[in-house]
Each structure stands twice: as structure tokens, then as C-alpha cells.
Please model this.
Amino acid sequence: MASYLLYTIFFFCLASATVLYLLRERWLPYLTVPNYLYQRLPSSFANDIEGGFSSADFDLTSNIASGDSRAGLDEQGKAEVKRIMRSDKVDFDEARRIYTERRFAKNNIGPDGRPRDPKFVSFS
Model:
């Protein structure tokens, strides 16, 4: 009798683990992991390029070539773009576009850059 219970529990755990493994792309983005498990993001333009935060459309090499002494890209923005790249499995340019559109939507700005305020008047 105890062996049937043991086999049933073992089979249930094995089946559950298999289902979780096969569906990991659905539940893994919702898993919260403490920040200290990830490496720190770079804090200069050279490190930003090494970290994958540069592309043909967003070129940081001119900043390095001109001797720009600023600290690099915004840390909070980089963390959000990195999260979008990881969770949505997109490249840097697409993640930057998604990040910008989300910031626009949060500030009541349309994807085309125009305010959504009904009182907004434009003279062009």
C-alpha cells in the first residue's frame, strides 16, 4: 500500500515538473528574482556598448570618440530596456521602441508623439 502511494507521488511530481518545463516561457517572465542575482549594468558609454546597448540606429561610438565624460545611459532606463529584451526576446532597437512607447503612454502622449489631451491645440 505504501509503495502505491510513493509511486503515485513520484509520478505526480514527475508529471508536474515536465509540464512546468514545457510551459516555462509562459510563467518564467512572471517570476520575480532579486536584483543581486544579476550582474550590474555598465555605467559608461564604453561599457554600454559592451552591454549590448548600442546598434546601427543608436550609435554610441561617436560619444566615445569625442571623449564624452558623462556617466553613460540612464540606469533605470537601461534596466527596463534589458528587462524588455530578456522577457520579450527582442533586439535592442525594438526594446528601445517598446520602452519609449510605454513611457509615452504613461505620460498621456500618443505613439506619434502628439499629446492625447483633449484640450491640446496645435497651430501648424
Q: What stands out?
A: The chain is about 50% helix and 0% strand.
